[in-house]
């Protein structure tokens, strides 16, 4: 009787453990899904002061609640969308764009990431249990925030307090 119940109990425990905390990282390139960066959140709806002065709807055109990231960035830098970026912020914009803007940054990063994971070896893709591929791939690049904070404190740099390390 013991030989029959032991595999059942062990299997139940393993199945329950598999339902545990799953991270959101999944570097499986075979899955095709929506591009979350193409969706812009809209502004909150507001009641107009006068309903008779509303613009006529234009099919396929812009909406009052649509966001304009470029105009919002200009406003954040102290300019006006109609006149461009303020002259006082020109140096900031020049410094931020000094290396240019790569239009194909996503494909470049995807190719570099694929090369990096391929270097880990063919056998790295064979796993008996689900593994957090993101943490596994970038483990050497991850910073220990508590160690960095402690190093800065030892060097005499004032640092903000950090939460306690979790066990």
Amino- and carboxy-terminal Cα gap: 40 Å
Number of strands: 0
Computed structural class: mainly alpha
Proportion of residues in extended strands: under 5%
Largest sheet geometry: none
Order of helices and strands: HHHHHH
Low-confidence stretches: none
Count up the helices: 6
The percent of residues in helical segments reads 25-40%
Instruction: Give the C-alpha Rg.
Output: 26 Å
Which word captures the global form?
extended
- Give the overall average pLDDT: 75
Provide structural commentary:
By secondary structure, this protein is mainly α. Helices cover 37% and strands 0% of the residues. It is extended.
Task: Compile the SSE list and pairings.
Blueprint: H1 2-18, H2 69-76, H3 90-96, H4 105-119, H5 133-137, H6 145-154
Short description:
This protein has 167 residues and is mainly α.
Keywords, separated by commas or semicolons:
6 helices; 167 residues; mainly alpha; single chain
């Amino acid at each position: 009787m013991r030989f029959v119940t032991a595999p059942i109990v062990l299997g139940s425990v393993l199945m329950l453990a598999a339902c545990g905390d799953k991270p959101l990282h999944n570097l499986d390139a075979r899955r095709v899904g929506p591009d979350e960066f193409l969706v812009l959140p809209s502004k909150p709806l507001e009641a107009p002061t006068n309903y008779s002065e509303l613009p006529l709807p234009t099919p396929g055109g812009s909406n009052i609640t649509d966001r304009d990231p470029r105009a919002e960035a200009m406003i954040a830098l102290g300019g006006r969308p109609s006149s461009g970026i303020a002259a006082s912020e020109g140096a900031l914009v020049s410094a931020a764009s000094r290396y240019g803007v790569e239009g194909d940054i996503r494909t470049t990063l995807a190719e570099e990431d694929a090369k990096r994971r391929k270097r880990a070896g063919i056998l790295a893709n064979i796993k008996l249990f689900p593994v957090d591929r993101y943490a596994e791939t970038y483990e050497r690049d991850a910073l220990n925030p508590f160690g960095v904070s402690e190093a800065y404190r030892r060097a005499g740099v004032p640092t903000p307090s950090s939460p306690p390390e979790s066990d």
